[in-house]
Amino acid sequence: MEDWLKDSTEVEASWVTVDLAIFTVRGDQLMVLLIERGLEPFLGQPALPGGYVQKRETLHEGALRELKEEAGIDGRQLHLEQLGAYGDPLRDPRGRVVTIAYLALGPDLPAPVGGTDARRAYWAPVSQLGSGAAQLAFDHPAILTDALEVVRRKLEYTAVATAFCRDPFTLSELRTVYEVIWGQQLDPSNFRRKVLNTSGFVRPTGEQRLPPTGRPAALYRRGNAWLLGPPLLRGTGHTT
Q: Is residue 183 a contact partner of residue 128, using CB atoms and an 8 Å limit?
């Protein structure tokens, strides 16, 4: 270690954690995974799942392990990407802790099972959190806010909406993803036209699903494009 670093009064030991903003669509609602903390600090308060990165694992490995330990979910089956780093000196009362936040998305994920330092894990409707989001531990309200905006923005320019759908899916199911995440109703005909005119967004399977009522619906899978051109921009309540 450099001598100047050992003698510096401006540098102290830091710990690294990972926190996960995990979203799914269940019952036509956007849900986020929360845990009830079983340890201090913030004992009994809701929080995003996460924990310390172990000395012999990568950040990605730590995120997968925490997801499995605290919620019983296999993150290898999810869309998982880094959201950003959060390092306010006062974000954790235990000392200087820098967290790497991850964004995880999956289709109709199962009921979680709490473990390790989580008393329980549960899905919470994002639309019903309201001011309750401010009660999340640490700086998790800010992480959740950032994660939501990233997901909403990614729906415009990427095919990430398909991560919320089980293959194969109907265009109605894909439209529901946009509606619950953007919080606005979309015109079915305009949406269908936009999706099918966006090269590589979806590909037809040639099969149909018979609904309880109504006409059979064509089934699709995600196409080979990730970036959408043209994008599906958020509007004033309908696609154009």
A: no
